[in-house]
Write the structure tokens for this entry.
Amino acid sequence: MLESRSAEIEALVSRADELVSQASPDELRARLAGLEKRSAEPGFWDDVNAAREASAQMAELRAELAEIDELQKIAADTEATHELALEAGDEELWQEASELIGRLEMLIDEREVARWFDGEFDHSDVIVTVTPGQGGLEAQDWTEMLFTMYLKFAESRGWKVDVHEAQPGESIGIDRAVFTLHGRDAYGMMRAEQGVHRLVRISPTDLKKRRQTTFAGVTILPVLPDDVEVEIRDEDLRIDVYRSSGPGGQSVNTTDSAVRITHIPTGIVVTCQNEKSQHKNKDAALSILRARLFERAQEERAAELKELQGPLADISWGSQIRSYVLYPYQMVKDLRTGHEKGNVEAVLAGDIEGFILAWHRWVAAGRPDSARIKE
């Protein structure tokens, strides 16, 4: 006899109905209809800036309504499929219903978390930097593993990725990774990853197969909108152009297109070399420099208002936010929220959404004592 999950589905549908009600879809449709009517009027594009703003608002409203429609459809399909499976005693249908339950729960979680994205830059794209910490050359390997994890997570969400820097390490891994993720609420989502990440495993380079602990630091910054003023004077910049280096393949530049920008007053250095165009590398480097200078200004203005980037401690023992243990057991655990998952391979393959959502719930709840959550 198949197990009934009716109570679980009823609770999820109730949460979905509440989210739909809070979104006020009828009001959204009325706003969209008004903007569409306005866009069809003669002279709409006479004011280009206003027209672009209206077009952006229409796109946002359509995306919001599409999400609401999907949520309602998945909720209805889940109820109907589960009911049919129980009536027919059909295991295949029951499995399909279980998959729909998982999908519905994920959609609900995402919408609930999105309500918490009320920071100035939470809806912005995000600049991610992964840096090796304590652990010698193997920390560079760990940096590459984290880099790959984030790329796969971005792929799973349909986000666009621009890699600015990912230079090979001395013998394994990469020396540092700097990349931009373009997607809805990218900065808001990725704020959960700011901090030190610890890996415990059997060393792949140690002939005696001893256990090794390595660390890497993840820094998160928003891509600043154009209307955010950050003063960058040409005379304060030293711009060096050189030939990219890296592993073979079509992505390697064979011309002097890599760009290194040094902000002389602060000593901040930004390097971008993965674009084939020197102009594109320069634009990307300046965007990252703007974000870092803005962050620095925020910190100098008031340490207690440090909202853009949480404090990043030494990338070593005692400062980690999350541990990834491959030996002597298999477990990934976030030390802030208590959220954990036994399938380490899945996490390293980009399945980190559970950790991100748990962190946002933890923050929204005022960071109470962590509750142990297992997957």
Q: What stands out?
A: The first strand starts at residue 126 and ends at 132. DSSP finds nine helices and twelve strands in the chain.
